[in-house]
């Protein structure tokens, strides 16, 4: 795995033996040349990394050559032996050669091997960044610690163990400074300083963001981030003479930071300054959107690609956060309370520019949320593409930086070659490698430049899709409003029709009831008038068939009012003694019974008539050919006289 050149004339880092020619390993102890010097791993055979080292790695011609002294692996260290493609961890303890190969009997003592010694605990690497801008473009200073450990030994060996040496805090800081700063800028730039000042979980949120972002980058190289500690996050305000007016501590680990010049946010900036800061933030968002819309503007593309790309990521993250707050809010008031007032004002201004008609409060809020959702979708599309491109560029830069470190280490080792011609030859070759690395670095810059142009084109296309989606949504809403209007009109028409029919039915029913009442009143008056007549008038007005029956009825009624002597006398007069008194009494009793029967029959007839009338009123009214209502028992229309159907 190691690709080390020979160091003719140099001494062995462990036994100090002078070497000549193109030897790669020490002829005495078998240690690979170029290994780090003056470390306990080699001098004392005590496999432990230094206080500022994450890992020490070297090689031996034969694994048995490790045991020039008793091998010690302390509890604070983890050691691995790599032979071929297999990595074997050496347990903690002290080993002599025989006991070692008895315990790890799958290792080959006469085969070359590479040794990796690392730490049990993660190595903390400190970072400090100034001029990290918030959403209002206020500068924030950040100081934090990233603890790194080796997670995957084979992957670490493929990338780092191409030459023997060490990896410590200095090398890790150089490798991680760019991605850590980018992640910090994206986090801080997506938030306002007031929001960060009011957040109790700011340190935890920043730590999680950094740890999650670095995990994606370092996994390929066999490294992992054990934890991130934000030591301080501070905003300093200066006057015109660059004298510090005060400091706002957004986050601080009081175990490691002495808080001085602390002031409240409202003590640093007055209302007028806050208005200016808000306008600056709004102007940054508007300018970002205009740059993305003006794809044909070469100046705008150059500014976005070369100067404002990192800032654009933060502005986009801020926009996504504000749109998410609007979508999570149930009303305009809640959106304002959640700090999305600026984005809400931009959306309202956008609707006003399009000449959107005035709606009620609920419909207008729905329109705003739909526009926010479409904007957020477009921003997420661009942000995801930017993230993929940024990760690819970050991996290339990490690999390029690691390669440059390895070339520098080789140059340092080549300087130890005593043979001047040999030393010059190796240095020339390494300088060529260094120049190739510089060309690769420039190629990465050009690729990043091209990626930013592509990102701009993608953002422009996303804006066009956003406009098309918004138009589709508005067209759909217009269709729904038309359909709703039609439905309401149809419902109103149906309601009016039902009301008119009900009114007509009530009018017809009233006419029918009035006719029935008039007919009943007329009948009653006729009956009362007929009852008031004397017997002679009744006989005179009665029809011929009824006259005889009425005559017999009247005679019987007169007879019923006579006593026995009167009936006897009447019988003697009318029948010359043909009826006896008993017969006359029997005749009277029969007449009385017949009268009672007729009265009962008449009463039943009246009851049946009333029941029939009630049923007729309850049933649907009959109608003649001319549409006039009629009772069920009528045969002719009372209004026009037309015959009624059966």
Terminal-residue CA separation: 114 Å
Average pLDDT figure: 80
Shape: elongated
In DSSP terms, counting alpha (H) and pi (I) runs of 4 or more, how many helices?
A: 18
* Content of β-strand: 5-15%
Say how many strands there are. Answer: 13
Radius of gyration, CA atoms, in whole angstroms: 55 Å
Q: Can you tell me the residue ranges where pLDDT is under 50 for at least 5 consecutive residues?
A: 296-307
Query: Structural class, from secondary structure content?
Result: alpha+beta
How are the strands of the biggest sheet laid out side by side?
A: 4-3-6-1-9
Describe this entry's structure for a reader:
- Helix content is 59%, strand content 14%.
- It has 646 residues and is α+β, with helices and mostly antiparallel strands.
- The chain has a 5-stranded antiparallel sheet with strand order 4-3-6-1-9.
- Strand 12 (622-623) and strand 13 form a beta hairpin.
């Amino acid at each position: 795995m190691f690709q080390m050149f020979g160091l003719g004339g140099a001494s062995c880092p462990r036994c100090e033996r002078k070497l000549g020619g193109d030897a790669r390993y020490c002829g005495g102890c078998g240690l690979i040349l170029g290994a780090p010097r003056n470390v306990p791993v080699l001098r004392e055979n005590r496999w432990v990394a230094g206080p500022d080292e994450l890992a020490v790695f070297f090689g031996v011609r034969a694994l048995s050559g490790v045991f020039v002294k008793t091998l010690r692996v302390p509890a604070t260290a983890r050691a691995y032996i790599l032979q071929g493609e297999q990595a074997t961890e050496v347990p903690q303890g002290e080993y002599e050669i025989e006991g070692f190969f008895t315990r790890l009997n799958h290792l080959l003592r006469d085969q070359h091997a590479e040794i990796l010694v690392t730490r049990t605990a993660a190595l903390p690497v400190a970072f400090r960044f100034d001029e990290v801008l918030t959403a209002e473009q206020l500068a924030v200073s950040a100081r934090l610690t990233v603890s790194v450990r080796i997670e995957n030994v084979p992957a670490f060996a493929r990338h780092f163990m191409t030459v023997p040496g060490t990896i410590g805090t200095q090398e890790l800081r150089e490798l991680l400074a760019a991605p850590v700063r980018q992640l910090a800028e994206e986090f801080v730039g997506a938030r306002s300083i007031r929001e960060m000042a009011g957040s109790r979980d700011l340190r935890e949120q920043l730590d999680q963001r950094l740890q999650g972002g670095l995990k994606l980058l370092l996994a390929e190289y066999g490294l992992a981030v054990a934890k991130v500690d934000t030591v301080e996050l501070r905003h300093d305000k200066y006057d015109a003479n660059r004298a510090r007016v005060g400091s706002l501590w957004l986050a601080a680990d009081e175990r490691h930071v002495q808080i001085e010049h602390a002031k409240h946010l409202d003590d640093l900036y007055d209302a007028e300054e806050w208005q200016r800061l808000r306008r600056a933030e709004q102007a940054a968002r508007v300018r970002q959107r205009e740059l993305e819309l003006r794809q044909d503007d070469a100046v705008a593309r150059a500014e976005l690609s070369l100067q404002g790309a990192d800032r654009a990521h933060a502005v986009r993250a801020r926009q996504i956060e504000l749109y998410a707050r609007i979508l999570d809010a149930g009303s305009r008031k809640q959106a304002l309370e959640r700090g999305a007032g600026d984005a809400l004002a931009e959306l309202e201004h956008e609707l006003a520019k399009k000449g959107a008609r005035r709606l009620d409060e609920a419909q207008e809020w729905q329109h705003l949320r739909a526009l926010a959702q479409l904007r957020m979708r477009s921003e997420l599309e661009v942000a995801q593409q930017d993230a993929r491109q940024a990760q690819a560029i970050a991996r290339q830069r990490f690999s390029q930086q690691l390669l440059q470190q390895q070339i520098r280490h080789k140059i340092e080792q080549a300087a130890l070659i005593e043979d001047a011609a040999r030393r010059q030859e190796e240095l020339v070759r390494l300088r060529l490698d260094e120049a190739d690395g510089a060309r690769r670095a420039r190629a990465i810059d050009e690729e990043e430049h091209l990626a930013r142009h592509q990102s701009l084109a993608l953002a422009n296309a996303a804006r066009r899709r956003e406009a098309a989606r918004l138009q589709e949504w508005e067209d759909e809403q217009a269709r729904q409003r038309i359909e709703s209007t039609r439905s309401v009109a149809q419902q109103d028409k149906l309601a009016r029709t039902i009301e008119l029919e009900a009114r007509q039915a009530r009018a017809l029913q009233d006419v029918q009831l009035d006719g029935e009442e008039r007919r009943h009143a007329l009948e009653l008056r006729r009956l009362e008038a007929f009852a008031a007549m004397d017997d002679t008038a009744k006989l005179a007005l009665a029809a011929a068939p009824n006259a005889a029956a009425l005559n017999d009825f009247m005679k019987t009624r007169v007879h019923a009012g006579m006593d026995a002597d009167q009936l006897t006398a009447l019988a003697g007069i009318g029948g010359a003694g043909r009826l006896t008194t008993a017969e006359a009494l029997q005749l009277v009793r029969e007449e009385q019974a017949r009268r009672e029967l007729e009265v009962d029959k008449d009463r039943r007839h009246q009851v049946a008539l009333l029941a029939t009338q009630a049923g007729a009123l309850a049933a649907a009214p009959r109608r003649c050919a001319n549409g006039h209502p009629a009772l069920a028992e009528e045969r002719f229309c009372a209004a026009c006289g037309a015959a009624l159907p059966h």
